[in-house]
Amino acid sequence: MQRVLVVEDSKVVQQVLRHLVAHYLNVAVDFAWSLAEAKEYISNQNYTLALVDLTLPDAMNGEVVKYTLEKNVPTVVLTSKIDEYKRQEMLEIGVVDYVIKDNRDSYHYAVKLVAQLLRNQGCKALVADDSLLSRSLMKQMLEKQLFDVQVAHDGEEALKILKKDAEIKLLMTDYAMPTMDGFELVKAVRNFRGRDDLAIIGLSGAGKHGLSARFIKYGANDFLTKPFMNEEFHCRVLQTMEQLSLIADIKESAYRDDLTGLYNRRYFYQFAESLLKETARKNSLALLDIDFFKAINDKFGHEAGDQALKQVASLLRSSFKGFTVARVGGEEFAIVLADISLEQAYPLLDAFRSRLAAYDFVINGQSFTITVSIGLANFQNVTLTSAMRLADKALYQAKAQDRDCVVQQS
């Protein structure tokens, strides 16, 4: 579980940070006023990241930063001013980054930086460079940003790694490499990984004009000239990953039903079609319909009907973790049970039907019961249209059998 420690002695600044943290971070956050209090927190909790003020009443010379780093807590520093000596000292002892707090936007940047670093945790990155020193340096810098980093000594090795591991989200590639240079690597990678799925940052030595434009045209998201400053490296990587995260959020939003938060009909059809390409897998498809839903709307009103849909969706989500659940109509839901045969799917669905029927739904202070009819069909070596037709036929039979039951395709 991710957890963040914020150490700041100014009441005004801490109030601003608390407000921003509530908006941007969906993790547990503890606030400390001093080094002593920070030590107490760290002795009792494990922290993913720390955001700390460089100067505190009981730690005037940055002792809090040294302490958090000694305890292996990646640390972002807040400071009102910094000279070149202090900057070098901070980088040498291993802080992730520092933020100069000279206006409200700086606090906004600091919290967004923390948010992106938390998203980076466990995210896979690949560094492709024929220089051992350069590879090692970038690996170390990316690990400070909480990435899980792999390395490749040339473009061909990097391409093989990327083809095997679709979870890699960031590629940093040098231009000049043996067997396959950075341009050829980027062009090859973009044949199977798009800009919204894999971020690529190109690198090359200074003095080679036009390389940045060519990298971008071939499919890179950004470019860095070596040697680069630590701050520039961190900013470019974080901004690139933030863009990737924003695109992912937009796509996720487009695939979600606004009311229930489940996947919507569009996503369901795209996912189901892709699943059919894996013909060797045994899958099942279930269609669920809330019984007498119109009566709920008529008795309690449409707002109450929406509340009922949300509660049913919540039960579906908790009961079918690991499976794809979608709202495909007004009161109709679909579940794709991948790698589950009809014989395995039937008891799972019947158990959910029983759980739902026994659940005490409460709307506007009134309790009532909801039941569902479920149609179950085989979802292997058939078209999606055929599978939907079979599941719908089984659902119709369930409704004809006094509802509140599961019917398997005949």
TrEMBL record:
<dbReference type="InterPro" id="IPR050469">
    <property type="entry name" value="Diguanylate_Cyclase"/>
</dbReference>
<dbReference type="InterPro" id="IPR011006">
    <property type="entry name" value="CheY-like_superfamily"/>
</dbReference>
<dbReference type="GO" id="GO:0052621">
    <property type="term" value="F:diguanylate cyclase activity"/>
</dbReference>
<feature type="modified residue" description="4-aspartylphosphate">
    <location>
        <position position="53"/>
    </location>
</feature>
<dbReference type="GO" id="GO:1902201">
    <property type="term" value="P:negative regulation of bacterial-type flagellum-dependent cell motility"/>
</dbReference>
<feature type="domain" description="Response regulatory">
    <location>
        <begin position="124"/>
        <end position="241"/>
    </location>
</feature>
<dbReference type="Pfam" id="PF00072">
    <property type="entry name" value="Response_reg"/>
</dbReference>
<dbReference type="InterPro" id="IPR029787">
    <property type="entry name" value="Nucleotide_cyclase"/>
</dbReference>
<protein>
    <recommendedName>
        <fullName>diguanylate cyclase</fullName>
        <ecNumber>2.7.7.65</ecNumber>
    </recommendedName>
</protein>
<feature type="domain" description="Response regulatory">
    <location>
        <begin position="3"/>
        <end position="116"/>
    </location>
</feature>
<dbReference type="GO" id="GO:0005886">
    <property type="term" value="C:plasma membrane"/>
</dbReference>
<dbReference type="GO" id="GO:0000160">
    <property type="term" value="P:phosphorelay signal transduction system"/>
</dbReference>
<feature type="domain" description="GGDEF">
    <location>
        <begin position="281"/>
        <end position="410"/>
    </location>
</feature>
<dbReference type="GO" id="GO:0043709">
    <property type="term" value="P:cell adhesion involved in single-species biofilm formation"/>
</dbReference>
<dbReference type="InterPro" id="IPR043128">
    <property type="entry name" value="Rev_trsase/Diguanyl_cyclase"/>
</dbReference>
<feature type="modified residue" description="4-aspartylphosphate">
    <location>
        <position position="174"/>
    </location>
</feature>
<dbReference type="InterPro" id="IPR000160">
    <property type="entry name" value="GGDEF_dom"/>
</dbReference>
<keyword id="KW-0597">Phosphoprotein</keyword>
<dbReference type="InterPro" id="IPR001789">
    <property type="entry name" value="Sig_transdc_resp-reg_receiver"/>
</dbReference>
<dbReference type="Pfam" id="PF00990">
    <property type="entry name" value="GGDEF"/>
</dbReference>
